[in-house]
Design a protein that fits this description.
Blueprint: H1 27-35, H2 62-72, E1 77-78, H3 81-86, H4 93-100, E2 110-112, H5 117-129, E3 133-137, E4 157-161, E5 168-172, E6 177-181, H6 186-194, E7 198-199, H7 212-218, H8 225-228, H9 231-234, E8 235-241, E9 251-254, H10 266-270, E10 279-286, E11 288-289, E12 293-301, H11 304-316, E13 323-327, H12 329-337, H13 344-360, E14 369-377, H14 379-395, E15 399-400, H15 404-412, H16 418-425, E16 428-438, H17 439-460, E17 464-473, E18 477-487, H18 492-509, H19 528-532, H20 534-547
Helix pairs in contact: 2-5, 11-14, 17-18
The structure holds flavin-adenine dinucleotide (FAD).
The site of flavin-adenine dinucleotide has 38 residues, from strand 3, helix 7 and strand 10.
Protein name: FAD-binding oxidoreductase
InterPro entries: Alkyl-DHAP_Synthase, FAD-bd_oxidored_4_C, FAD-bd_PCMH, FAD-bd_PCMH-like_sf, FAD-bd_PCMH_sub1, FAD-bd_PCMH_sub2, FAD-linked_Oxase-like_C, Oxid_FAD_bind_N
Family: Belongs to the FAD-binding oxidoreductase/transferase type 4 family.
């Protein structure tokens, strides 16, 4: 069998790794207060039993499977239940709830692992000749429902896993451009770049289990985007396999030019296309020399509006941090509650000295907001940046607390996703919705979104939680990232839909986008028209219809029309 590894079928990450709270004494009281879940008595669900899943037989014709095996080799074609299930979903809360409750509407029929672009071309051509559906698969980490086949799909559905295309092919050191195969997972490609002194500078929270092809296909953004850019800026060149035509291969090539005036950008059409325009096999990415120094400083602000104003002032200043992030008071409370037990002087500082200083400044400790600002570069550059930012923080009433919390943030940044499985195991939802808006609208978007979520909780008659941070700053605005949680009642997905829909609607009603970096898939498509206008959707519809007249490439994604929400 192929040696491409995947996340566990029922949750995030790898088997045997999970979130634990026993060493975090403030966590259980926090959860009790936030959503009314008592971790001391909550029953932990058993790990779901794969054999109990009901899965329709693969609809792939044996002759088609044999033809695919003829292209990629028998070891690299799979129709077994585990492979089919793993490739049929991403990791949205809806995906995890359904898979844990044996609600698989339509699984893919066959999974194929080509070794190189030539094999991808042959698989695509064979699939189009079969009138099959092709769904490219990267790491399977998306949370927008971008991978699942349409429930009513009658054609054979093929998942094209890019996992064997995982090499950094070459680096143009003069230009800082690296040719990277689309299926390379974050850690693997970063290790290959680091070995030659380079970094991609793109670190989404899902970094460990997502691929560069998936990042490009979903218009991803990483936590260091303030300096290195979103994936849309990082992707310079592309190779995309489409069906062969007129006896020639169907490879769409976008050369890695820094900027070009060649009509509407085809590169930008591919970036964010979620598999609808073809299979990305290679990305030429802008890469950077690994910085001499890296530091993440922590600051506190007396309240959210001071934190927001400071982030805006930093974005307008000469400072060029890699990360600007500030949590609202609730998320600050959450971060403090997930800190490990402190001892000795450390405990004195965190629990007595620091709160004492804040009180002496007249701060209300329930309002304080934690901020992380990161710097990279040569020593003199980092020193100057810290000074510039330090002055802005001070002007906005904030205070620096050194690098200690920043070091912890850096260490645990990829662990947070495991918390969602921990909550699901105990009958509770934990999920996210993120958006972006101009600076002038951010406070309004924030207030309206919190009110919308609380309104949904009131309608459900439950105690729910919502918290937020600002991250990914731009000249004209920033991203707001909301995390919400509540204990499920009798109808988990209906309850989830009510809360999630209220949040998404608040975004568009207040001049914000339906997604800054999670893509559209089927989860966000109901709001696309309200976001990019009816004519914007018409242009997209025309693009997909002409580029893929047979609807072979991941049909149903991005455009409104495929309803996944449970009407309640
Ligand atoms: C806990 C958690 C945290 C997350 N944090 C972030 C974050 O910080 N930033 C962020 O941007 N996203 C984040 N995400 C979302 C997700 O990781 C991204 O959408 C990611 O870019 C998906 O990459 P992937 O390789 O897993 O793609 P997949 O999930 O496998 O696929 C996503 C979509 O892209 C298409 N696709 C994949 N590869 C290709 C290809 N080679 N050619 C054409 N189409 C392709 C698929 O068909 C599908 O439509 C998070 C998700 C989770 C669950």
């Amino acid at each position: 069998m192929t040696d491409v590894e995947h996340m566990k079928w029922w949750g995030w990450g790898v088997e045997g790794v999970g979130f634990h709270h026993e060493d975090k004494p403030a966590f259980a009281p926090f959860v009790l207060q936030a959503v009314g879940l008592d971790l001391a008595t909550a029953q932990k669900a058993e790990q779901p039993d794969f054999d109990a899943l009901t899965l329709a037989a693969s609809a792939a014709r044996p002759a088609f499977v044999a033809a695919l095996a003829g292209i990629v080799g028998e070891d690299h074609v799979a129709t077994d239940p585990l492979e089919r299930v793993v490739h049929s979903y991403g990791k949205s809360l809806r995906d995890l709830v359904r898979i844990r409750s044996n609600a698989i509407a339509r699984a893919v029929d066959v999974v194929v692992y080509p070794a190189d672009e030539a094999e991808v071309q042959k698989v695509v051509d064979a699939a189009v000749a079969e009138d099959a559906v092709i769904i490219p698969f990267g790491g399977g980490s998306n949370i927008a429902g971008s991978l699942e086949p349409r429930a009513d799909e009658t054609r054979t559905v093929l998942s094209l896993d890019l996992g064997r295309l995982d090499e950094v092919l070459s680096i143009d050191a003069e230009s800082g451009l690296a040719r990277i195969q689309a299926g390379a997972l974050g850690p693997h490609l970063e290790a290959q770049l680091n070995a030659q002194g380079w970094t991609i500078g793109h670190f989404p929270d899902s970094f460990t289990h997502s691929t560069i092809g998936g990042w490009a296909a979903t218009r991803s953004s990483g936590m260091q985007s303030d300096k290195y850019g979103d994936i849309a800026q990082i992707v310079r060149g592309l190779r995309v396999v489409r069906p062969s035509r007129d006896g020639a291969d169907g490879v769409l090539v976008i050369p890695a030019i820094p900027s070009a005036s060649t009509g509407p950008s085809v590169r930008d059409m591919i970036v964010g296309s979620e598999g609808r325009l073809g299979v990305i096999t290679e990305v030429t990415a802008q890469v950077h020399r690994v910085a001499e120094e890296r530091t993440i400083q922590a600051y506190f602000f007396p309240n959210w509006s001071a934190g927001l104003a400071a982030m805006q002032a930093i974005s307008e200043s000469d400072a060029t941090p890699i990360i600007t992030r500030v949590s609202d008071a609730r998320e600050t409370g959450f971060s403090l509650a997930t800190s490990k037990q402190r001892h000795g002087f450390d405990a004195f500082l965190a629990e007595k000295a620091l709160p004492g200083i804040m009180r002496s400044k007249g701060w209300n400790l329930d309002d304080i907001c934690l901020s992380f600002i990161g710097f990279e570069g040569g020593a003199a550059h980092v020193k100057r940046q810290k000074k510039l930012v330090g002055a802005i923080v001070k002007q906005h009433g904030g205070m620096g607390v050194g690098t200690g919390p920043g070091v912890l943030y850096d260490q645990k940044k990829f662990d947070t996703p495991y918390l969602r499985d921990f909550l699901l195991d105990r009958g509770a939802a934990g999920d996210v919705s993120e958006t972006a808006a101009p600076w002038s609208k951010l406070a309004q978007v924030y207030d309206a979104t919190i009110a919308a979520a609380n309104g949904a909780y009131a309608e459900l008659g439950i105690k729910g939680w919502i918290m937020c941070h600002l991250s990914h700053s731009y000249h004209s605005g920033a991203c707001l990232y909301f995390t919400f949680a509540f204990v499920f009642g009798d109808e988990p997905l209906r309850e989830y839909d009510l809360v999630k829909s209220a949040i998404q609607q608040a975004f568009v009603d207040n001049g914000a986008t339906i997604s800054h970096h999670h893509g559209v898939g089927v989860e966000h498509s109901p709001w696309l028209e309200q976001d990019i206008s009816r004519e914007g959707v018409a242009v997209l519809r025309g693009l997909f219809a002409s580029a893929d007249p047979g609807e072979n490439f991941n049909p149903g994604k991005i455009l409104p029309g495929v309803e996944v929400r449970v009407e309640g």
